[in-house]
Amino acid sequence: xxxxxxxxxxxxxxPEGLTLKGVLEPPQALSRPEEEVIRESLANPIDSPRLxxxxxxxxxxxxxxxxxxxxxxxxxxxxxxxxxxxxxGGVREEDISFLTATGTHRAQTEEEHRMLLGxxxxxxxxxxxxxxxxxxxxxxGFTSRGTPLKVNRMVTQCDRLIITGxxxxxxMAGWGGGRKSILPxxxxxxxxxxxHALALKPSPHTGRDMRCRxxxxxxxxxxxxxxxxxxxxxxxxxxxxxxxxxxxxAAAVSGHWRFSHLKGTELVNDLNGVTVxxxxxxxxASAGGYPKDMVLYQSAKTVFNSAEAVKDGGTLVVVARCQExxxxxxxxxILTEYPDQIEREKALRDRFSIPRYVGYxxxxxxxxxxxxxxxxxxxxxxxxxxxxxxxxxxxxxxEVEKRHPQGGSVYVIPHGGAxxxxxxx
Length: 425
Description:
The protein is an alpha/beta fold.
């Protein structure tokens, strides 16, 4: 069996004694041309007029797009149809601009901008959001949970604001997409950290708030804070895709930013949720290859999703090249510089950041299961984290045999960043 690894693949051969319980793939979606899916959504928006009926000639339009770490959303495929819809409403090319929702991520290269916009890059201006550039931000006040909301001026100075992205599982917000285009997408560093700090319980030494978890938005304070921030900005229209197991656009939702996103979460469960009878002794999961496995920070989604299918004390093997390393010095700091979770939590509360929180969750999982990472990183990089670093799948399988000499059950998850295993009650 081949698994995505960087821009190539690696072959997985399971050791004797392991019983394959199943390959956890998303349910097969009805195969439809992507253009048909996109056009149908734009023609039938949810709780909103059609986009071409919202805009008018002479209006300026800002389109918020995700950054290169989410290039798997296939923006270059769907954005031309959004532009086509705008121009059908009379908007001129020179009045359309793009803003990348980088959040706290780095700026994009010219090549990466091309990945996002495709041929549109030759016609339109694109700006990378910088969460630390005070001159580019405007202050909107505070959310009811105390988040100091500053956002990129481009989203407030345009006549019409459109947010785009993909609805997928998210380890803290329940689901990605929708409101996340604003917070964290185009918000200030302080706003992003304040919002994400809601993932911890208010009192020291009490750990994280388990309501802020994957596939849950009920009473999820982090998600609700994001929604409030989005409402304060009030986008005029949203367009989000849902990616199928083949990496193509399987569904799309558009219209009102909140209600279209809710519909998108239902579609994600239909397309990417997998129900299994029980947990396995071993899970082998690939992040899905480039760009999903560029860095450990991004590949952590595969850890958090796939760990749902592993028994306590079992083994989780994650195949993610991480050719750019951890992707965050702060994430690596939490992983390696503290002796235990108590000290990590204390450090996290003293100076919360999203990468530090991701590091905290990674070590939490490494304490619950045997976490083996197949990547370009080495054991020295991850010393003290509890993560076992190896460079080949064969080495990972040797680790599995050492930990499970009597054999055991195994799931294989080829697209661990997208698939979420639900365990039957």
